[in-house]
Amino acid sequence: xxxxxxxxxxxxxxxxxxxxxxxxxxxxxxxxxxxxxxxxxxxxxxxxxxxxxxxxxxxxxxxxxxxxxxxxxxxxxxxxxxxxxxxxxxxxxxxxxxxxxxxxxxxxxxxxxxxxxxxxxxxxxxxxxxxxxxxxxxxxxxxxxxxxxxxxxxxxxxxxxxxxxxxxxxxxxxxxxxxxx
Length: 181
Description:
Alpha/beta knot; 39% helix
């Protein structure tokens, strides 16, 4: 369990607003990629700058990782479930992560992890197979996503390799070392 290829994992970021959310949405996608997700979708307003930023990271640091803007996120959720996947909504109002993560890991279904932007509509809570709380306190969707993926993969994502990377970091006790591949 915790194998990075056991399931396909995608993230759905709801309600992106370019003027307010550019950095946070980009960080959601960077964390999703670095912590083992295969790709992401986002709704709200299309933002070519975010798409370009993520594309450049994948081109430089490797992938695979896809990003797609979607207009109808309810349709995406229902199609995901129709195709046999499950929906995991990260919310501070859900069941505690440590109480449900084992059952989520044991499921062989592909996972669509939803993180909100603006106020999350009630329908998300109703459609989700799992409403999961990383904490029962206000927090960042970036923080919640990183903790959730870390727990889902049981730390295996920390040593994940990325295909077609052009550069990589050589770990150092002090200083920085980046090499071209």
